Amino acid sequence: MTRGRTLGRSFYARDVLTVAPELLNKVLVHDDAEAGRLAMRIVEVEAYLGRDDPASHAYRGPTRRNATMFGPPGHLYVYFTYGMHWCANLVCGPVGRASAVLLRAGEVVAGVELARSRRPAAKRDVDLARGPARLASSLGLSGVHDGLDVVGSGPLRVLEGTPVPSSDVRTGPRVGVSGPGGVPPWRFWADGEPTVSVYRPAIPRRRASRA
DNA sequence: CCGGTGATGGACT
DNA sequence: GTCCATCACCGGA
Known about the structure:
The protein has 211 residues and is an alpha+beta fold. 12% of the residues lie in helices and 27% in strands. It has helices at residues 9-12, 16-22, 112-118, 132-139; strands spanning 27-32, 36-48, 76-81, 85-92, 99-110, 156-159, 169-172, 187-190. Strands 1, 2, 3, 4, 5, 6, 7 and 8 form an 8-stranded antiparallel sheet that branches. Strand 1 (27-32) and strand 2 (36-48) form a beta hairpin. The chain binds a DNA duplex (13 and 13 nucleotides) through strand 3, strand 4 and helix 4.
């Protein structure tokens, strides 16, 4: 299931709220020189608007961490969080807008054995990429992939897939984001997908106090 | 199934 | 010092 046309730059160059739902059912392919190929059908995404979005990493302007977001669309923004996890986004919109789509969940459609080896904690295959850090882990993504172009001949690309009919696209609030929630339909998934990550309201927890 | 919580390090104020 | 675009594991129902 790794046939199909590679999406071009113009796909990503549009408004992030247009691109996000269209990414559903697209197939992200990662060819690792040593590990091999893994292909992931995207089933859940989340939009981040950029400078005007309090929940976005880009809200306070460019830093070394978020530099990729401020660059051209069609590049992968990978960041490190909670001291142990990587998460991946696709940069959208025009240069400088810093909008991006967080890849929240997917279904492994090629390289399942490889994904299992990367995520031994997953009890069932449906858990291999249920959640953004799990998705990145299954794909073998980390900081070395931040900034990579997914358009063209690199190890990463996104293939066309069967579009999800708009009547089957569901929307909801963002996951794990505190602060002003805002109005736009931030999160998108396809109706009936078993691999969509579970919604949990953002409840900031204090770090455990030392005795 | 569900809720509670420790892990763990970097970015930012 | 505080906050994370999170996950795995545990105990209870």
